[in-house]
Design goal:
alpha/beta, 2 domains, D-Maltodextrin-Binding Protein, domain 2, ten-stranded mixed β-sheet, disordered N terminus, about 15% strand, 10 strands
């Protein structure tokens, strides 16, 4: 009888452990989020506050969007993550590949329809915009550019750069923003490619990796990049950087979150997603100069450090990101033939 009781206890313990590992039971004291680096978007503070308020351990994760998507694909049979954070197009791809699950919340009602999936399988938590990051010291007496067309002027020779659209999502976003601002569409890349061709002849720099240090040091006096990188350089790093939204218009750069399909801690994952849309988390994200997706009051010092909301409302549009994603292969073919080659 003793042996039977011991065997039963061992089997019961094994089943309980198996249930916890595979997402069953009540194991909700941990949540694993992919692509939440401590220094990016204030994730360190966001997850710290979430843990303090919920009692759920929430470690940071150093992946980027592409690495997070690749990990979810590799682990699809036995997911290790509960939620994931992506640049918007990567979130859309995760949904297409069946890696993320629907999410329902009243908080999603405050997220615009074009910034979320209809089933909540991805939704925007905050966004930036494509802008000119201008090192005013490096420009000297040369005027700060105001428009996409300005940049082709001879006075900006060897002074302009953006990440190579062949290798960087931000680089492709720059080209999409310029093309749309100059009258093009995702079916007509000619305005943007002609503009980029003129820049190439004028000494355009196309770094393959993050170039914020290059604009900070004046090596690239005008870097076209995400606005929040410029605000950080100006206000956190005390660099002589001015952020400019081009006069012809620009596009938003949304970042989204998703519930991982069959993640091991589904309840904890849902709680983290709810928290990401809370007033507190939205304000914490804003401290990294990312614009909240919900209409919340941000800290005064942050609001004063950024361009007015009216400027964003006037100049920054949300494009059809599905069409933008679909058009990328055709764009790259023309880019290689007409600009890069």
């Amino acid at each position: 009888m003793v042996a039977k009781r011991l065997l039963g206890a061992v089997i019961g313990s094994a089943l309980l452990l198996s249930a916890c590992v595979n997402g069953g039971g009540s194991a909700t004291d941990t949540v694993i989020s992919y692509n939440t680096p401590e220094q990016w978007a204030n994730w360190g503070t966001v997850l710290e506050h979430f843990s303090e308020s919920s009692g759920i351990t929430a470690p940071n994760d150093p992946k980027n969007s592409g690495q997070a998507l690749a990990a979810l694909q590799a682990e699809a049979g036995a997911p290790a993550a509960d939620v994931a954070y992506f640049g918007l197009v990567f979130g859309m791809q995760a949904k297409t590949k069946g890696l993320v699950a629907p999410f329902e919340s009243q908080s999603l009602d405050a997220v615009p329809a074009d910034l979320k999936a209809s089933d909540g399988s991805w939704f925007t938590v905050h966004q930036g915009a494509i802008a000119f990051l201008v090192n005013t010291d490096a420009l000297g007496d040369t005027p700060v550019p105001k428009c996409w067309k300005d940049l082709t002027s001879a006075q900006y020779k060897d002074k302009v750069g953006f990440l190579d659209p062949k290798t960087a999502a931000v680089g492709y976003s720059v080209m999409a923003a310029a093309n749309l601002g100059l009258g093009g569409s995702f079916d007509n890349w000619s305005p943007g490619l002609e503009w980029a061709g003129k820049l190439k002849q004028n000494g355009l720099s196309l770094p393959a990796q993050t170039a914020t240090s290059a604009v900070q040091q004046g090596e690239i006096p005008i870097l076209i990049d995400a606005d929040f990188n410029g605000y950080k350089l100006a206000n956190t790093d005390d660099a002589p950087i001015k952020v400019v939204l081009p006069c012809e218009g620009s596009i938003s750069v949304p970042y989204v979150m998703s519930l991982v399909k069959n993640g091991p801690h589904q309840e904890a994952g849902r709680k983290l997603l709810e928290y990401a849309l809370s007033d507190e988390a939205q304000r914490l994200f804003a401290e990294s100069y990312l614009r909240p997706v919900r209409d919340v009051e941000v800290p005064d010092d942050v609001a004063k450090a950024m361009l007015p909301k009216a400027d964003y409302d006037k100049l920054v549009k949300t494009p059809d990101f599905a069409a933008m994603d679909k058009a990328q292969a055709g764009f790259l073919k023309r880019w290689n033939a007409e600009v890069a080659g």
